[in-house]
Write a structure and sequence with these properties.
mainly beta, Jelly Rolls, five-stranded antiparallel sheet, three-stranded antiparallel sheet
């Protein structure tokens, strides 16, 4: 299952459930995203030709990050650009999320292990603005809105 979290038709996040399986290559992101996310499944013996990546000048305005949840459950809270809370979802082990725009906060519901991948170089505290989030009593779980 693929779920897109939207706000005014803008993609805030793309969540790929651990249950997603399909043959071939599937890109989940629009071509203009600075972080590209794809799923690949190939049969034994499939050849992917060797290649190098060419230097291409890119203009990246915002950090987009991908989280790979390896173990545990993680609540993700979504906010719009104005820091207004929108909704939450729970990721489970094996899920992947691309955080594309807006704001986000997290609560580990279990002990978690995860990987984070984002653009560099890291700008430290200049890379983000922290703000007060919601409490557990304010969480809204609206359920899936868009799936593939």
């Amino acid at each position: 299952m693929i779920r897109r979290i939207l706000n005014n038709e803008k993609i805030l996040a793309i969540i790929i459930s651990t249950d997603f399986k399909d043959h071939g290559v599937h890109f989940f992101t629009p071509d203009d995203f600075s972080q590209q996310l794809a799923y690949m499944r190939h049969p034994s013996g499939k050849i992917i030709p060797p290649h190098v990546h060419n230097p291409v000048q890119r203009d990246v305005q915002y950090t987009q990050e991908v989280l790979f949840l390896r173990r545990g459950r993680l609540r993700v809270d979504f906010y719009d650009e104005g820091r207004t809370y929108l909704e939450s979802c729970i990721l489970k082990a094996g899920d992947v999320i691309l955080l594309a725009s807006g704001g986000h906060g997290f609560e580990a519901l279990d002990e978690i292990e995860m990987f984070e991948v984002k653009q560099g170089p890291y700008a430290g505290e200049a890379d983000k603005t922290r703000f007060a989030g919601i409490t557990s009593a304010e969480v809204i779980f609206p359920g899936p809105k868009e799936s593939e």
